[in-house]
Amino acid sequence: KAGVTQTPRYLIKTRGQQVTLSCSPISGHRSVSWYQQTPGQGLQFLFEYFSETQRNKGNFPGRFSGRQFSNSRSEMNVSTLELGDSALYLCASSLSQQDYNEQFFGPGTRLTVL
Amino acid sequence: AQSVTQLGSHVSVSEGALVLLRCNYSSSVPPYLFWYVQYPNQGLQLLLKYTSAATLVKGINGFEAEFKKSETSFHLTKPSAHMSDAAEYFCAVFAWSSYKLIFGSGTRLLVRP
Question: Which residue of chain A is at minimal alpha-carbon distance from B95?
């Protein structure tokens, strides 16, 4: 079974631009979570989607948004990029939200904002 | 609120020596606890998890961790370090209320030949 895939793997943008990152979960997984990893703040939860609905959101500004499609694939968007948005963005998928299910992580998208 | 604290941002051991990475948790409910490993330019890989069954949990690559409620600890150990163990290790607790993992700040393990 294929793992979680994230595209692109690397991205370079300039301040003020916007960016869209994509995550394809493991087949059959319906929950997708996003995390931001930076040297200063570590791993922080962005949001979680289940059946196309955002169920939980972390403490990030409204510039960070996401969505989930009917096939469970998810995208996250960051508008008006700032230098501090440079980070590794990790996506994780799990079977469902009804009970704890192990979260499987993708390789991440490394975003650099210049 | 739930949290985890990892003691030591960097740990250095000799190849063949014991690996001990420390994690303490805070939780008002019985916690689900995890250790993840991250190699350079990769995502997170689950090493092991504690979900209220046996307190001694065995994981992949020879790692194990013991849940100690009295000490609110979940330290990760491996009897004999291998060069390939050099990576960053994260302890995490699962927050049921928001269905998210709360991570510690990470410990970078260096293995000396």
Answer: A100
